[in-house]
User: What shape does this take?
Amino acid sequence: MWPKKMDGESLLSSFCSSSKLQSVSMHPAQPREFVFSRYTLDEVRGEVVFEYTVRFEERPEERFQDVMSLPKEAQISAIPSALLQRCLQSLHLILGISYWKMYCPAKICLEAGYGLDAEQAEFWTTVYTKGLGEFFYRHQIDFRDLIRFPVSVDQAEKAIPYTRKNRVLLPIGGGKDSMVSADLLTEAGIPFRPFVYGASKVQADVMQFFTEQELSVQTKLDLQMIAPSKSGAAYNGHVPITTVWSFGALFMAVLCDYAWVVFSNEASASEGNVEYLGLEINHQWSKSIEAEQLIRNYIHRYVTPDVTLFSLLRPLSELAIAKRFSRSAKRYLGHVSSCNRNFVVSKAQPERIGKAYWCGECPKCAFVFALLTAFVPKDQLVDAIGKDLFADGNLEEVYRELLGIKGIKPFECVGTPEETRLAFYLAAKTGSYTSEPIMELFQTEVAPLVSDWSALEARVLTPNPDTVALLPKPFQAVYTTL
Assistant: This one.
């Protein structure tokens, strides 16, 4: 189920090259309530089953199971029971988002034997509301006061101290960002272990670049959800997968003795796409600094203070990350991919013989190609991606959105129009892209809009010193080698 996002956030949703609203022809049956039924840990099988129930007014209930297979090295019996339950409860709540959104019941019930205090309930209400913002926008659902997690205890028990070794888990999604984090940690002399949530061909391929065996956890969505979603009997769409990854990584850090989980989310992930019913809708909300701080604070207050999650790349723009990636591009290109079609779960993952798969059609492919044109030789980049995307006139509307001259920023893990414009400017300076229709579009319609390219370059490519100062002190040293 994961890496829909590390580098991308969609799960079981169609890939759109446009930011237009999707038409909605579905009329889901009236749901009465969504129930977090129970979770069961089987230590012998090394498996956790999370169960959910949707009850309706006039038809039989539907039941779903999400199954997580744990790594053999997980020290289940050594973990304090109370801490184990806190981790599992958090996973139960976040994994339920894929099933709740099918019918969006207004009533939420906890039958799993645990309760939430007011602040916990507010946290989960926020995660569901903001994390599903794009989903609500696309389906034109009025989310206001729709989600209310129940408060059932006056005060929750405090987080459980459980000292973990001063070791790092580094989530790997198979794209450029996590590889940059790996290089920065290596150069700063900070050992880490690659961590993989789910399974994809591109993730498996990049493991060749690491000396330490990856820590891997597998999850399986209940495939019973696919048929009603595809038929229009239930809603389908985007979920905040990085939040799912966060609580999965927390669980693995507790089980396998790691104090740090280091993500690779950039500064521009915090910028939204559009406003809807008074809420900023951000495709990348679960990668934003707001979500990161909410999740870290929740973990430290209600789970354990001894595991810390943060993003190493938060001080950097997407373009600055691409520039740093270019140092190792010759080594990594052909193996990494930022195309989210690598993570499809409802059918076989696409393949490309001899190289990592890029669809060359989606906004994510278009954006990353534009970033890399500024720093990577054209022949090398085109060979890795499979074609020159600036020569593809079919991508003109996508690039208009990415450049900020039409519509809104695409609902994908893409950076700001400023970053895209600067990437085009730097690519134009190389002289490698002159006659392509997309570059001509930039030169005639976008370049005249910017009066001071030097100022833009300094702003976009310089790490934010205030954000660097917010990183845990042991990791600030990576910015001395950048």
